[in-house]
Amino acid sequence: MVKAAADRVNCVVDRHVLNENTYPDFSNIGLAVFAPLCGKNRGAFVTNPPDGHTYGCVSFPESFGEKVGVSSDVIVDSNSIQKKYDDGNITASDAVELVDLFVQSVYFSSPLVEEDYMACAVGGIAKLDCPKQSLSEVDTIRAVTLAGVFVPATWATSGSILTSEQSESFYSQSDFEDMKALGLNTVHIPISAKMFEKDSSKELDLLEDLLGFATDAGLLAIIDIQGENQHHEHHAIEKAAKYAGNAKNVIALSLPAHSFVESARQGAKHLPLMIPTTGPKLSSLVDTVSHLKDDPNIFVALDWEQTSTVADVASSTILDDRLKMFYHESIACDGRSPIEYASCYQGMSAFVSKGFDLSIDNCLHKEEPGFFDFGQCGRLNETAGSDWWQRHRQSLLARQMASFETGLGWTYPSWKLYNPEATDVDMSVLDTPAKLRSLKHVAAAGLFPSLGDNKATLSACLNPPVADFVLGDDTMSPTPGPPPACDGGWWDPDLGKCAYWIPPPPTAAPTPCMSFVEKECEPCDDTPVPCPTISSSDDGDRDLVMNSHSPMQAAFGGSVATMIIGAVIFKFVYRHNKGHGYTQVPDIIV
């Protein structure tokens, strides 16, 4: 419903996500809280009301501790919260209160929050504090889109626009039964305004059949009129609204633009109407529809697709792809911010009409004119059978669902793909971009969150995604542990056992020395005596005998000779030739 924009709404911790029971599982307060908050307002914040001081992540006010009943010298900065909890100085309840005070203080210190739809984005654990609104027929819309039946969606129909006969055979009653079994409660049906402009009986009959299938399966419906905002379409919009208002299971009509609201009201006075918009346009939406402030049944159809910028889609290796997936996971939980902003500041609850799917690139449109190739396509088959991609796709969907269910709800881009030639296809293999947007394929692959497990949905945004994108399915080699103790020996990894040094057995007597002479050798006497030194005989022959001092003397003499020869070479060859014409660089120690 449209209401006057609030002057200011507080941003607080969502106690359904972070509370004293879940805080022990809150594994990364740094990435979840400090990273987004310490980056706002150059890291500075003030108290409410101001106390004459400015604070930041490295300096908390004493009042933080006082408000939760802990000593002011315990909580001195942001790091103290987790440290003191780990040390047992504060309880989980205290820690949540401190995080809440931190969130509120930073939001209070932020300028123009009434114009910034992402001002309360804190990784999904914070919310704008205003009541959630919903449609009277259903608390949370969980829908799937019937893509390609009435409005061309060639990505879902094998690259071609369906003929009338193909459209009629695309869906059957069993499809709607399967939707219900999965936990869905609504079908989202895009149609063309021209259906009512030309009174196309064939298309209207098919629409009637599809609504009948939905009714029989216990499903509600949203009719989404696609048009070009032309003047001659206003009469068709009026007729479409009248048709939707009379259909027993249609809960809302989505319009091509806000300018058609008055025409729709001519056909249905109280039918909930949805106005399409995007995040950047939210801040000005309330002024655009200010003339509708007395209409309680105006809502927002939010386009939240995240595959339109270079940062969203660019990648050229499988490692880039994993990093990109991590990026999309990281921002998914902040998807609640524009939804709550629309409700709290614009007075209109939001239904996510686009943006809930597994796409992390725009490869779906690769064959279309104007496509920019950054290398982002062609590796989807490498993700098939990967445990890493399985885990992170599950995480992405769970995070999106947790965010989008803070508003009216969501719709998935398509239930199935039109491909009559494909037989015996393994639905669980996601090897084309289109299959990532087909809920039947995604559910078969085991990726879709359980719609009956509300607790799992709430906990999806408690912690940031796992940052294991570098290795992917590879694992690091385990760090080797310390080798076994080998008393008196060492561990030989090649042998896989301890090795020991075994000394040689002692000899019975000292080893006799050996003598080398220039003349005929004479055997040494058996009596152990020190080896003689080098001596000369009377006839001039030299006995070359080495004793224990000879090697040292020889080494010393050789080194001296080498130094002398080297000095001569350096002086007369190196210095005077190779270094000629250069200035000698002094030695420098670094």
From TrEMBL:
Q: Where are the transmembrane segments?
A: 554-574
Annotated SUPFAM superfamilies? (Trans)glycosidases
Which keywords label this protein? Membrane, Transmembrane, Transmembrane helix
Q: What is this protein called?
A: Glycoside hydrolase family 5 domain-containing protein
Species: Attheya septentrionalis
